[in-house]
């Protein structure tokens, strides 16, 4: 695996233009998400710079733009609140340690080559999860949008305090936030190719705040405050025995959500550029970027869909676009950081509110009840769990329920492929020779036919179908059409064979090859069924069964 991303210079003009455009989009979002997280505007800016630079340098998706995103900000916000409660003096240092550890987990996921499995989640779970994160972002911005501080304690406390927040709203700040939202929603689509609406809203509404309300009591308008130009402060990793569980669990959550968020964006990038990203390398690159970001006091990030699409549409095609974007933002931070001091927090709250509203999967939420009540139940349950319980609990429960329902459907389908046949009844397609052999056996040969993947949900059907047939003398287990044999189904087959042997029936196995035969042999069926009765084709097995029946009948006649 190459260390550096596919960096080349065949598209320098397009990459620099894409990086510049993505930087313009990133600036207001970085400020807004930094403030929303509780780490401050500078943490958002440094997160955008460092994540963008190192993820582009070490990642596996040439045109991907990485920066602080809504889902990552939601988790970082919760982490900061928890660590500050545990240790007010070192809470931020502990939160940045969580970001570093999340990066370590991402590197582990990439090194173990688990990238392609990360996005193998049911869409209704992903939709519910992302919609839940969008709702959290919205509730967390209601208070600053109304000119007040966000109540501690998460969404439930915001809902509880909502009447008080509305009653005490600051009309000037609420007006500034409302104008920001109006610009974002009414901005002409054709202008977006030239100047992003977020930047226009940020500049225009901030100028209105400074010029129109210059003579008002400016202290009533909360602003970002001055951001000192210069390099970020180094954050020493800090571990607290009292907070170790919070650190490790939240790092796992942050790393997992960042990986899901990033790889979904990689798929979008692939579809737009007709290329193929390298999932495992991308996770390693994201992990390196988050470790460095945490060390430098920036908030965590991942691949950002909006910025990536903007970059590609502007001409960005290689990692140079992400690197140039980061360097452009670095120049802005080092040279123009003081200019941000007059930006009202209500403006940033309006921008984040729009981000939250955009994250919600409105289209699927409307269609889910029409598609399936089960799909609707999963997506709405995941939303509720995400908003009111825990992000990872929501994903875990959603995936568990979705998998159970999938297994139930597969079991229902595969149950139809377990057939016990004693005569030619058209249950399966048989050749003329096979039909004649079965008819000649006169119900004394049981062809136990299995087809398709034998997952664990089919084991019950195997036992039930075999137990329902009596009066046969030879059992032929037909695995000719079985490509995969699970452990549980293999146990059910073993039990059926042992039951037949215990009552004196003869047994043969047909069509067991490759891994299917290896699985059965590990259950010591090779010792229970002689080698000459492991047969390759069905006609030969049925002919053997007929001979065994005739031998049994002849032996019974002699005894009589």
Outline of the structure:
By secondary structure, the protein is mainly alpha-helical. Helix content is 65%, strand content 5%. The protein has a 5-stranded mixed β-sheet with strand order 3-4-5-6-7.
Write a structural description.
- The protein has 560 residues and is mainly alpha-helical.
- Helices cover 65% and strands 5% of the residues.
- It has a 5-stranded mixed beta sheet. Strands 1-2 form a two-stranded antiparallel sheet.
- β5 (474-481), α20 (487-502) and β6 (506-510) form a beta-alpha-beta unit.
- The longest helix is centred in the middle third of the chain and has 30 residues, at 244-273.
- The chain is elongated.
Shape annotation: elongated
Classify the beta-strand content into a percent band. 5-15%
Strand order of the largest sheet: 3-4-5-6-7
Distance between the termini: 76 Å
> Main β-sheet, in a few words?
5 strands, mixed
Q: Report Rg.
A: 32 Å
Name the structural class: mainly alpha
Average predicted confidence as pLDDT: 85
Low-confidence runs: none
- Tell me the number of strands: 7
H and E order:
HHEHHHHHHHHHEHHHHHHEHEHEHEHHEH
Oligomer: single chain
Helix percentage range: 55-70%
